[in-house]
Amino acid sequence: ASLGLLVLAVLTNVALMARIDALEAGRQAEAERYREQIEQAEHTRDLAVRELGALALRQEKEQEARAAQAAAYEALSGYRYIGECTITAYCPCEACCGKWADGLTATGLPAGPGIVAVDGDVIPLGSTVIIDGQQYLAADTGVTGRNVDICMADHAATVAAGVRAAEVWVVVE
Fold first, then answer.
1. Is the pTM of this model over 0.90?
2. Which of 118, 94, 90, 122 is nearest to 106 (CA)?
3. How confident is the model at residue 31 (pLDDT cuts 50, 70, 90)?
4. Is 93 helix (H, G, I), strand (E, B) or coil?
């Protein structure tokens, strides 16, 4: 009976050791998977940091190029750089102008293509405004800050124009 008990104890210990070894092997495999995931995450993070740095450098160079362009235009004494402005559109309809939809601008000129609405504190009324190489007359108000509202012929064109950003120049008289 003692011998049978000894054999049973040895077999139980062997089975337990095998189970412990299997659990340890599983733990090590899982730890290796986690290590690989961490390495992949760190690699992705490093790539993102490098790309962010490159993006910041490109943006800085772009700003320097804009400043150089602004200085070159201003050196010609014919233009004043306003900066990057929000460009929107309107037409003289009631949907766009509300109670002021009488077809006239703030300066009394007819509202239509070639006219822009500006903030008179940023761009003087009567100025020639250049946006994307196109010239417009600043003859209307109704916007504030660095916003320019381009007058369109009809409401469909206004909706199609949407909202965007563009560099704005004013011709110096």
1. no
2. 118
3. very high
4. coil
